[in-house]
Amino acid sequence: MSGVPVRRATKIQHVLSARQFKDRGLLAHLFGLADDFKTQGAAAALSGKTMATLFYEPSTRTRLSFEAAMQRLGGHVLSSENMVSSSSASKGESLEDTVRVVGSYADVIVLRHPAVGAAERASAVSSMPIINAGDGSGEHPTQALLDLYTLLRHLGTLEGKTIALAGDLRHGRTVHSLVQLLALYPGVQIVLISTDDIKLPRRYLSGVSGWHEVRRVKDFDHLLDALYVTRLQAERWGKASRSGRLREQYVVNEQWLSCLKQTGVILHPLPRAGELVPAVDADPRAVYFEQAQNGLYVRMALLYWLLLSRAES
Questions:
Q1: DSSP symbols for 136-163
Q2: What is the tens place of the pLDDT at every residue in 246-281?
Q3: What is the arrangement of strands in the sheet containing 162-166, beginning at the earlier edge strand?
Q4: Which residues in 154-189 are b (16+ Cβ under 10 Å) and which e?
Q5: Does CATH number 3.40.50.1370 belong to domain 18-138+295-312?
């Protein structure tokens, strides 16, 4: 892989939001790299580079896939699974000070934090790239990249396709990022399935055309090409009983599956919390475990591009 050219036309120092990836040529380049890493491996392309993971919220897939990605690329990892209980955080050190210090040890920092805008705050004091791995109920841009990659590899194109996003669209940061990438494809129809109190905030629909809001999947008249399901973010609600009642409304069952084309796909960013009945796993349209695996290769591509384009600039 060391001979693969690095596309430098689009300059991105920090990965903070999906809106930074409006260049479809860059997306095609990243996804081509991901394909290559998936089939050919990496050949120590980032040997001598170090990535630090600072996670102030729990994570399994995102943290481990980033760490595995860096290791497969031949780089080193400084891992922090629980920054909240770390010595520095427990003593009251600010996020900015932590980033300044860790940035002197690492070539890139992957940050997850419960506060919206935390990654942007970190980027303001960091000379090293910051990758937003989730900032509260804000965004999760690298999840959106792997979601888009999975959709494209199954559907071929998103132009003219109908994609439904269902569940907690208010607090679900993966949806906040994904909807911005879906809007890059002419003719795509985005169906937002949620109740009024968990509907997608309007700020994420700025510049997005061709979207519809419904409360139930059966309220939409056309068959879907893809169904993207999210869990209810009970930890951001503070209303356990209300979230429990809502959860029952957004369980994907046979009625939901009947609204999806036979050539369609079912995605979920995981972890799931009862939104998908066990029978869905056996449906050939269910690709959420493949989707999670794709995260490894897309994050390999992103790290490779981000660090090598920086080195060559």
A1: TTS--HHHHHHHHHHHHHHHS--TT-EE
A2: 677 889 988 899 999 999 999 999 999 889 988 899
A3: 211-214, 189-193, 162-166, 224-229, 260-267
A4: bbeebeebbbbbbbbbbbbbbbbbbbbbbbbbeebb
A5: yes
Q: How is residue 117 annotated by DSSP?
A: T
Alpha-carbon Rg of the chain, whole angstroms? Answer: 19
- 141-292 adopts what CATH topology? Rossmann fold (3.40.50)
Cβ atoms of residues 22 and 184 within 8 Å = yes
Domain ranges within the chain, ordered by starting residue: 18-138+295-312, 141-292
For residue 132, the surrounding DSSP H or E stretch is strand 130-135
User: Does residue 297 sit in helix, strand or coil?
Assistant: helix
Strand partners for 193: 166, 214
Q: Point out the residues that are catalytic.
A: 61-62, 91, 112, 140
